[in-house]
Amino acid sequence: MAQPLPQLFGVIPTGLPCITLPTSSPTPASFLFTLPTTKPFSHICIFLLPGITLPPNTAAAVYLKVPSSADFKFLGGVGPGKESAVFKISGLGVGVGGNGANGEVDMDAPEGVVEGGEVTLGISLESAEAVAAQIAALHPGGNATAPGSSSALVVAGRGAGAAGGGTIDTVTLAQRIIKNAFNFLASFSGNLDGGVEVVPLKAFEEWWKKFEGRVRSDPGFLERDGD
């Protein structure tokens, strides 16, 4: 009896139902999805299903083959640090192809780009390093491993901004966020009758605004010791 195909990924062509069952699995690490073309679409969302964790040091490379081409075109990847992605596929070959400037979504593009023929999506489990390198090749001058980039794919053991080149654990990261908030909010504290110490909500909002701005401008600052 044939083994049931594994369900690891969700695939949503815009405007169509979610697909979780591959059409076929040529190898244990590769999955093909034949996408319906009865209704036109121009974007595809790919995501890891809830509870799914990829094997250590791997990521999922996403490829697309359109009726006008015999070859698969690399679109990007999902994996650690980037569990979902939306890819613009309009312009790849005849009516399909080429992502936007950041490799992803331009939702202003018109629907109705892909219609007719057979569109095949391929997802392959590969080394995280290899997938990150392919993403970097799509976006010269970008950073495929920076958590702050829209094409981010974090490679295990290479946390961006970490002083020693490694990632920090969740507890340490949480402690540094709390410390950052405490140091900022301490100067705004005051006492109510009875000696209860309080901090105005506006002060917290101001901290969050500054904190979010720094995360955007310097995504790895919390990972550096002593900062």
Automatic annotation (TrEMBL):
Signal peptide residues on this chain, from the entry's feature table: none
Assigned GO CC terms: cytosol; nucleus
Database matches in InterPro entries: Hikeshi-like_C (IPR048364), Hikeshi-like_N (IPR008493), OPI10 (IPR031318)
Molecular functions per Gene Ontology: nuclear import signal receptor activity
Hikeshi-like N-terminal domain span: 12-138
Family label: Belongs to the OPI10 family.
Protein name: Uncharacterized protein
Species the sequence originates in: Hyaloscypha variabilis (strain UAMH 11265 / GT02V1 / F)
